[in-house]
Amino acid sequence: MSDARTILITGGANGIGRATVMQFHGLGWKVVALDTDAEALAELRDRLPRETALFLTCDVGREGEVVKAFERVTEWLDGSGIDCLVNNSGIADPYAGPLGELELADWQAWIDASLTAAFLVTRAALPLLQKSGAASVANISSTRAVMSEPETFAYAAAKGGLDALTHSLAVSLGPDIRVNAIRPGWIETGPWQKSGARTHPKHRDKDRDQHPAGRIGKPEDIAEAVAYLHEAGFVTGQHLNIDGGMTVKMIYEH
């Protein structure tokens, strides 16, 4: 049984998940990442030692795959628990197209990838979280849970449901397990994609000027919020906007 703390991250192969994996491993944590992108997971597997990092291909919106993955996770932990769970999986593109053309199967795919997945993974992780004695869960929601662009119905609904699931879990699982949501705003994930998909976009002045913080968000900003919420022992059931202040700034069309 290791003294190192363990974090499990869904959607851990690219973007926010990948940055969180690398940040926590750099802090001395053992890391577990679940994702459907086997190629991106293989890249991470080559970078980090097998003793302290486990990467599993898993569609966390499917119950059978989650059950099977957690059998492997439990075996790998060898009696240890999970100290921090990050429910980060989801479909990144929020745009569904016109409501009249949105198929039920497509709607369900957005819901399952984020909201259903958070339920399935948290339920499966519960015995391991309880072993920690002071565990935390961070659900990666979105500012779109509380504000919308046109034609983002399913994405917004999934993230709004994740916000509600957050406070329900917090009051049900406390005091031993604290549960919070992080609402990212505009986060540039291009530099944190697998090598074949990596980009380094150049943002315009007006993109940066939308943010009182003066810049676009980085995946590292979300990883730092996960770390803060894990250590903040009197914070649970909350929804933390990490958006550079964009959602509190009034923007008029000129």
From TrEMBL:
<dbReference type="Pfam" id="PF13561">
    <property type="entry name" value="adh_short_C2"/>
</dbReference>
<comment type="similarity">
    <text>Belongs to the short-chain dehydrogenases/reductases (SDR) family.</text>
</comment>
<dbReference type="InterPro" id="IPR036291">
    <property type="entry name" value="NAD(P)-bd_dom_sf"/>
</dbReference>
<feature type="region of interest" description="Disordered">
    <location>
        <begin position="190"/>
        <end position="217"/>
    </location>
</feature>
<feature type="domain" description="Ketoreductase">
    <location>
        <begin position="5"/>
        <end position="189"/>
    </location>
</feature>
<keyword id="KW-0560">Oxidoreductase</keyword>
<dbReference type="InterPro" id="IPR020904">
    <property type="entry name" value="Sc_DH/Rdtase_CS"/>
</dbReference>
<keyword id="KW-0520">NAD</keyword>
<feature type="compositionally biased region" description="Basic and acidic residues">
    <location>
        <begin position="204"/>
        <end position="217"/>
    </location>
</feature>
<dbReference type="InterPro" id="IPR057326">
    <property type="entry name" value="KR_dom"/>
</dbReference>
<protein>
    <submittedName>
        <fullName>SDR family oxidoreductase</fullName>
    </submittedName>
</protein>
<dbReference type="InterPro" id="IPR002347">
    <property type="entry name" value="SDR_fam"/>
</dbReference>
